[in-house]
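anyone seen this seq b4? input:
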Amino acid sequence: MSAANQPVSAANQHLIRRTLYTVPKEVRDEFRREAARRKIKFVAEIGEFSLAEEDSPDLAWATDIAWNAYEIEIPSIVQGAKNLKSAAFEASAKNARWIRLDGLHHRRATLIAENLPTGEATPLSYLRDAKRPKPANPLAGFFLTAPDRAVAVFDSLTPYPGGLVPLAEEKKGPPSRAYLKLWEICSRLEKAGVRPPHPGEATLDLGSCPGGWTWALAELGAAVFSVDGAPIDSTVAKRPEVTYLKADAFKLPPSKTDWLFSDMICEPKRLPELIERWRMAGCERFVLSIKFKG
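predicted toks r here
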């Protein structure tokens, strides 16, 4: 049995296991409609966080989900910190370093944090020569829902608890900021145990203009076949890892490739057929952004 599925011990009855969803305000209406269809009842909604019963289902409109979250009593500053540490022990993260997340009662939360070993969400970058050390201790997050209640988060779908994905901006090289989306995708792939594209792998970037994703894939060392009806940035096009073709991505004959990437602006209903064509040609890994008109 995993730590996330273990029952709370008798010594830790101040802990109530919950499911925590992170939902930006831009998609909260869609999230609520999806949750209503699944008959999910929420215990609390604090900013971008929605707290539900333990083992609630995966919801597509949540940008992050933590099934290993606990609601915790905070009777005082000092005892609250002790209870958070107790929750970390329960979640097999006794050496966790803590990040204070956005919730309620910020001043009280800051005082509690002063009684905890603190950590830092280091900005992520995926440049080939970057050496990104793994934290020596796991990170945990917490926020207050009331003066005497907190939620502790020990694991989620994103690299840092509570949905934090801080990204390092590259000042030289990328022709647009679209590469940041790809850095976030890579971080989520790694968290799920999937290695991002690496040297020796063939990648296809559809709808690549001006070349932000093509640049990022080339920085990872992969060979990139970059396709768009408009030209990509000339500096990116000249890179040895990049082959650029001016063409309609939907008319491109499928061939063998390790990864298909697409940040195209197109009707979402056109994507399933596109994926199936390339899947039949042998591609097994897809990363596509879905964009809705308006």
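Confidence is low (pLDDT under 50) at residues 1-11. The longest helix spans residues 77-90. kinda curious what u guys think
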